[in-house]
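Hey,
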Amino acid sequence: MPAVLLGQTEQEQEWTRLIKEADDYSIGAKYDSALLLSNQVALAAEMEENYEFMTRAYFVMASVYYRIRKLDLAIDEYVKAKETARKWGNESFVVRADLGLGVVYHQFGFNALDESHPTYDTVQAVLYLDSAFKMFTMAQEYYMRNAPDNYLMLAYTATNLAGNYYARKEFIKSSVYRKEAIELYERVGEKSNAISHTYFLGSTYLQHFKLDQKNHRPYLDSAKHFLLFSHVKSLDIPLTEVARNASKDLAFVHQYLNNTDSALYYWNLSDSLLIEIYSSNYEDRVLEYRAQYETASAELEAEQQRFRALQQERNKRIVLIISIAVVIIFSIWLYIIDQKRKNIKAIAAKNEELNKQRIDELLQQQEIASLQGILEGQEQERKRVAIDLHDRLGGILSMVKLHFSAVEEKLPQDNPEKKKFLTASELLDLAAGEVRNISHNLLSGVLAKFGLVPALKDLADRINESGEIKLHLIQHNLDNALNGEQELQLYRIVQELISNILKHSEAKEATIQLIRNEDSVNLIVEDDGKGFNPNEGIKGGGIGLSNLKARVNKLNGNFHIDSGKGAGTSISIDIPIIND
């Protein structure tokens, strides 16, 4: 792990120390502590966008997860390390992340080749080993190109490639990379690694011999040579585990060669070394336990001394603690009483607010009911006036027109008063037409005869003829959807909305949409005018926002206004269909 470098900030020096400590915990199998420290560095570095220490922390976490065989989590950390190494701009660490991914993939492949492992799957094993091989090859090419004198990393990549070929049972290719690794370890003075890999080389030749004992006889001699060499050297250092494994393989070699005495010697030696390994581990554990016992005894004695010292002060503190407890309990009691008082006050205020809301709702309902009564009265009055205009005044004007026509026929063409008489007759026709229009508007004759859609088309045509605005009517599947009263109320709503558009909106175009849904009719009236603030209500004349609410409420519908200054206006109204 990195040492403290010149130019590092105090924060980076602290992170360096923590990374080193986390790595030591990982090597010492204190994995929880290692993960805790490295994750602490990763989070702190992430806040500072320090990609170097994010990368270093991810590497420590990846190695911990690999050691405890949580391989999926190890892959996640190596992938994050690769990404942050790129942002850091350190290609060497990018390659190291790839190399770490290769090691994890290799372990996945090794597990998948094991029939006793839950993930046993020979096809998947090949895929994992191929991925690992790709990573190892890229790493080797990088170091050969950019760091040819980094013998340790080259030896590490050669070792992984040898292991990859060994797992595939391509033992000859594995032996080539194993020899390369041995040579590189010897260059950097890694004597233990060189001896260990010499044993692996001998074991590789032995496995190749076992594939075809008849035709691979020369490989048995090579296996014997390297196993014997590693056996002797490992006893000198000593590397007891290597010596024991070499003894086992040499026993097999001599047994195959019918060298019974030699085979027995190596079997016995293997057993002796195994006992030595267990004894060594046992002695190490005994020493460790003894040290722990002595440490615990010293700590116990110190604790007892501290306890005696504390015991002397304990009685003094009990009185103080009891006093403080009484004060706290009394304070809590006062606090509870105060909170109850506040809660009662808050509940009373809330009840008062609810009562006020109920009163407002009742007043609003009364207002709407009153408006509905007014609207019904207006509608009845409109109907009466329209009938009187049409039947009475219209009839009188028609009779007058008949008399005028009779007189007109008797006047000679050269009578100088005939022109004035004709002008009066035309004014009479105009008056009769105006009476019909007023009656039509009050009673909506087209609506009464043909229904809502023709009435709205007639309304749109008359407005378009005026040239003040372009009005579009869109309707779909509206036949027989509403009863007569609903159509009349909806027509009045459209009349007033269009009137408001003409008076206030300064719009160039407007649209009326009537769409029948499954259980309702949707009316949308839109314009491209100057808009208004819906919270301030519909200003000016017309039925106003309150009247609009009353009409819609009478139809058991609901409406929504969407408008803003300079953004036009859209009013949507939904009226339920009443199925008789």
